[in-house]
Amino acid sequence: MTGPLSNLKVVELGTLIAGPYCARLLAEFGAEVVKIESPGDGDPLRKWRVLHEGNSLWWYAQARNKKSVAVNLREPDGQQIVRELARGADIVVENFRPGTMERWGLGYEALSRDNPGLVMVRLSGFGQTGPYKDRPGFGAIGESMGGMRYVTGYPDRAPVRVGISIGDSLAAMFGVIGALVAVNERARTGRGQCVDVALYEAVFAMMESMLPEYSLNGYVRERSGASLPGIVPSNTYSCRDAKYVVIGANADSIFKRMMRAIGRADLVDDPSLASNDGRVARTEELDRAIEDWTSRHDLDTVLEVLEKAEVPSGRIYSIADIVADVHYQARGMLERHRLPDREIMLPGIVPKLSATPSETRWIGLRLGEHTDAVLGSLGYSGERIAGLRRRGVLG
Questions:
Q1: What's the chain's average pLDDT?
Q2: CA angle 181, 184, 186 (to 5 degrees)
Q3: Predicted confidence (pLDDT) per residue in 5-19, tens digit
Q4: Do residues 90 and 183 make contact, with C-beta atoms less than 8 angstroms apart?
């Protein structure tokens, strides 16, 4: 193993998105991640969304750099295997409903008896405590309860979702932050701890100024479509060729540069528009002025003018636009890998470290591919492994 986290051993328990994505981020930077999957079908994500030769294309990214071990966690012998793995691990990542790990004898109290330095990252819908802890909670529920869905969409329509499982992914990233903070604390004290991440709290943590605004004067942020309320101008505008441009000209100096670039010097010289609070009061007027200009030009012309004026702006990319973009290519964000019959592209790893860059050592592999090797490293003989497999403990 290589990479800045190659000194860390991680056991991943759980399925689908939040827990596996948390462990994936650790694996991308070199951590040795042993992913425990159920014999037979494995992680349900293996069959989600677009499939190729029976495998999810999402799986190849979500499981990259991990070792797959097929173990039945409902069997006592399977639970014992996890205990042995946890004994030598730095981090355990799990995303079962609270109480499940305890029922299997795999809760933090049990695992940390043999490994006091263990860090356990626990991702769930509502957290390990509180009146809602036993409720099932997926990312969609976390996005709704966390406040994100309420402000997403247009005011005259029902709230909509972001087009990805953002709640799960945010929780996963907070899980990684918590894990690394806990590992750093362990270096000082020698003691591990639990990292409790609730999906709804991960979403709520991203909701900017919504809480202080409400607590002070009862202001409730509502859906605003493509605009950014209270920060002007910042919106999406239509162009002559039926394409759209996103413009963020809300800094005072940038606003002035943009108004000059679109031929509205009269707005540059208006003292009431010199700062954001004055522009907010005239949001509709400014948006009309900008779209009056963008609607008379094709998108490429709009972007050329704004780039010359150093105004933050951009087109709205589809995945086809992303793949064709020279900047994505130059930054290594479009990795190419081989499947048995063709090439596949996976997203590059973020962030980029100058001295210890990350790498994709392998993409998601077949279920249980590393079972024998991992158990062998624990001292299991081939005969014992075969016996466990015959009894349905291993896949």
A1: 96
A2: 110
A3: 999 999 999 899 999
A4: yes
Q: Render pLDDT for 274-320 as a digit per residue (tens, 0 to 9).
A: 999 999 999 999 999 999 999 999 999 999 999 999 999 999 999 99
The whole-angstrom separation of Cα 42 and Cα 48 is: 12
Average pLDDT of the residues in 172-196 = 98
Contact 309, 253 (CB under 8 A): no
Confidence (pLDDT) at 101: 97
28-56 pLDDT, tens digit per residue, is 999 999 999 999 999 999 999 999 988 99
pLDDT of residue 1: 65
Tokens 């405590």 sit on residue: 129
**Residue 241 corresponds to which tokens in the numbers above?**
């060729």
d(CA 159, CA 363): 36
The pLDDT, as a whole number, for residue 169 is: 97
d(CA 339, CA 303): 38
Query: HEC string of the chain?
Result: CCCCCCCCEEEEECCCCHHHHHHHHHHHCCCEEEEEECCCCCCHHHHCCCEECCEEHHHHHHCCCEEEEEECCCCHHHHHHHHHHHHCCCEEEECCCCCHHHHCCCCHHHHHHHCCCCEEEEEECCCCCCCCCCCCCCHHHHHHHCCCHHHCCCCCCCCCCCCCCHHHHHHHHHHHHHHHHHHHHHHHHCCCCEEEEEHHHHHHCCCCCHHHHHHHHCCCCCCCCCCCCCCCCEEEEECCCCCEEEEECCCHHHHHHHHHHCCCHHHHCCHHHCCHHHHHCCHHHHHHHHHHHHCCCCHHHHHHHHHHCCCCEEECCCHHHHHHCHHHHHCCCEEEEECCCCEEEEECCCCCCCCCCCCCCCCCCCCCCCHHHHHHHCCCCHHHHHHHHHCCCEC
Mean pLDDT for 356-374 is 94
* Two tokens, residue 290: 């900008």
- Positions marked active-site: 168
Beta bridge partners of 192: none
Q: How far apart are CA 345 and CA 331, in angstroms?
A: 14
